[in-house]
Amino acid sequence: MAHRARLARALDGTRRRAAFERGDARASGSVVRRWRTGATARDDAWGGRGVSAEALEPVHVRGLNDAQRAAVLAPVGATRVLAGPGSGKTHVLIGRVAHLIHEEKTPPREILCITFTNKAAKELRERLRDKIGEVAAKEITAGTFHSVAARMLRRHGERIPGIGRTGEFTIYDADDSKQIVQSVLVNKFGESKKTAQPGPMRNWISTAKSCVKHSVGLRGSQMLRALEDAKKPIPPMSQQRFVELYDEYEDGLRQANAFDFDDLLSATVAMLEMCPDVRAYYERRWSQVLVDEFQDTSTTQYELIRKLSQPQGSVFVVGDADQAIYGWRGAEVANIRTQFDQDFKEVQTHMLTTNYRSTSTIVEAAQAVIKESSFPSPLDLVAHTPGGRDVAIVEANDDREEAEFIALEARKLVQDSDLRYSDVAVLYRTNSQARVLEEAFIRAGVPHTVVGDTSFYSRKEIKDMIAYLRIVSNSSDTVSLNRIINTPTRGIGNSTIEKLNAWLKTLPKKDGLSPSIGDALLRGAWKTNPGEQSELLPSADEMGLTARARTAVLNFVELMRACQQTAMNATPGELLEDVIKRTGYETMVLDADDGVDRWAFVQELINLAKEPPRDVDETIQDRVGLEALGAFLEGVSLLTSAETDDVTGGDKAKLMTMHASKGLEFDTVFIAGVEDGLIPFIRNGDSDDDQDEEVRLFYVGITRAKRKLMLCHARERRRFGQSPQAARRSFLLDSISATLTGTKKPERPVTLHGGVSARARNGTGMLEKGKADWSARVTVDLPPPTRKREGTTRDRIVKSRDLIKKVTGADAVVPLPLRKAQAASESSSGSSARAKPKRAARHVKKSPDE
């Protein structure tokens, strides 16, 4: 019956196509010719006689399996697709868009596709171009939650009552937000700049904003209650400080005409709720809403989707509750499990269960893990690729031996096959595990990169240049102005800045807030009549400055005014070159020890800034001026949201946390530290939901592997700088071994957290090596014994330095243990050369009592 239905749909499409060619609008519908991508290929297939039924189907469903095809062709309405790892969810999403355009006659301009990462959004746009053509793809709005929200706020955000921002707002990343928090801690609570720790408070603010539908107009006391209601309470001793700090933080954002990342979503939801005309506009603008990775949506993100897709209810969400691993940053897995059914009528659910990525052995190992979850998985995955000896459980004596095994095995795999280093990934639970692994990779001569190192946009010189551009675009941006007002050094020190801040408090207030330092200096907010022609700054006495300090500030004001004038008719790249020339920034960078490398990053930024600016909806035609500058800065801000690491470039093995591996796949995957307390990770105060998420995280890590998976654990491990502690392999490994060997899951002796039971030790107090009955489907590899060190300490130091240079391509930085050994060796040899001849020992006569 399903076969006949597909054939009937295909024949119906043929009749409508023929009607279109005849010009019969009634039969063909309002099809626009330019959207009919791939028409020639379909006509060729349909024109022949005796072709298969599959060939008669529309191009966008060819090659899909039955479950994928059913999801793509589902009736318009509320549709949820539960897609297991490697099940082709992106194919379904792209096919759905093509189906809406070709079969449902939805104009591309009315389609909104939302993803979570810039990488996913870029891939989505590229594949849409391949599937539906360049013209139609450009008309579709495809981007991340934050990029879509930012564009909406640029256009209509000023209509939100009491929002206190203009359309030229700056987007603050996590570092910018921490600077505001630190300023409050120092100025209001009297903490010193050296000891203030803004991180925890900034994280609580972010978590609180993700727990409410929107935070516009809410005070600190209300946000505190939101945290308590979400069962994410703040320690009692910090609650009052949080309430006061939150209000000061929000005032700081308004004063700087800035939104943080959480505000982008929160303010957009508030806009749709408070401005009915704006909401009506976007309901007409996007009649079809599609969302990827729906299991990772927060309360605010879900509310944004709900408001955009109702009342028409045409929403298509794709996700997998088994891969929900971001609860710690506000994601609510209940959105995909239950909330979607409560808020939308007649929800259709489709399940994608065929895994095209991993072998059957790896899929079975993953299934064994997810069965340990407290929530039964609705998906029963089936692998498309047969398995064999694809999974290994490896035991090492300690974490160093584990790291050595992984590095040497990675090298061996590449040397003995057509595998490339970039096909290999090493995953771990915590960043603290990376150091010992990286040292082992250096010693083994394996090219590698640690995902999570300083990203391009986090480098000091890049942040400096972006800060200059931000001030040109938005002079109210206090964080950016404080960053560059004395960079390069121009005689405006901390004392002068403190006096400027004191002067600001004497100026007229607007909406209860003093003007920002940028508005006072660059927009003349100090003037009684802003339109009057006068000096750029008041007198030194009025500002509370010395004549010398006022001159330094005046020079800075003149410099920035000149840059603002340049920006009117320049590309962002040309503006950067003008800023560098006027400030002498190139000289400052090149004078540093690593100046050549740092200057190369600045040049790369200039090249990026000279490219045509891209908008979420369309390409900005005018490549110069403030609009192009704003588009460039918006793109930079959105790229700093913790996803700027390039994990695809270069033939290097990738070392990363399991969280960072989400959305990636590799031929061979090593997972280090699969031990109780580490995987799943245990913290004090963890809830059952937290522990369940840890199980899902391991499931995500396993399903990154395509052909080989090696799960490693150690008998002893050093954690957080402590001495080696006894460790025991995770109970999740027992589940995997029992599933793959068809044996009964072994009983686990009860142990205290962090301890080892007596039954796990032999008479010497050492851990005994566990024994397991493995079938041929599972490989059990033992790491090679630690090799005996060869040569003298100095020989090993020289060899290490040469090896580091060979692997990294940079001058060697000798690891700390070897640096200490080198210093000791040199000290010993130096002291020996200067040592005086020893005196002959004097004979001391013993007393009778001795």
Topology summary:
Elements lengths: L1 H21 L2 H4 L10 H9 L18 H7 L5 E6 L5 H14 L8 E5 L2 H15 L1 H6 L1 E4 H12 L13 E3 L1 H14 L10 H13 L9 H10 L6 H20 L2 E3 H14 L1 H10 L2 E4 L7 H11 L5 E5 L14 H10 L4 E5 L1 E6 H11 L11 E4 L5 E8 H17 L8 E5 L5 H11 L3 E3 L9 H14 L4 H7 L9 H11 L12 H6 L17 H4 L3 H21 L4 H12 L1 H6 L4 H15 L16 H14 L13 E5 L8 E6 L16 H15 L2 E13 L7 E2 L4 H11 L36 E2 L13 H16 L7 H19 L16
Helix pairs in contact: 4-5, 5-6, 8-13, 9-10, 9-12, 10-11, 11-12, 13-15, 17-30, 17-31, 18-19, 20-21, 20-25, 20-29, 25-26, 26-28, 32-33
Question: Strand fraction band?
Answer: 5-15%
End-to-end C-alpha gap: 108 Å
DSSP summary, beta strand count? 18
Stated plainly, the CATH topology of the domain at 359-448 and 650-779 is called Rossmann fold
Sheet of most strands: 8 strands, mixed
What structural category characterises the helix and strand content? alpha/beta
Q: Can you give the mean pLDDT?
A: 80
Tell me, briefly, the overall form.
globular
What is the radius of gyration computed over CA atoms, rounded to a whole number of angstroms?
A: 31 Å
- Count of helical stretches: 33
CATH class of the domain at 359-448 and 650-779: Alpha Beta
Percent of residues in helices = 40-55%
CATH-assigned homologous superfamily of the domain at 359-448 and 650-779: P-loop containing nucleotide triphosphate hydrolases
Weakly predicted, low-confidence segments: 1-49, 614-620, 747-789, 803-820, 830-850
Query: Can you name the CATH architecture of the domain at 359-448 and 650-779?
Result: 3-Layer(aba) Sandwich
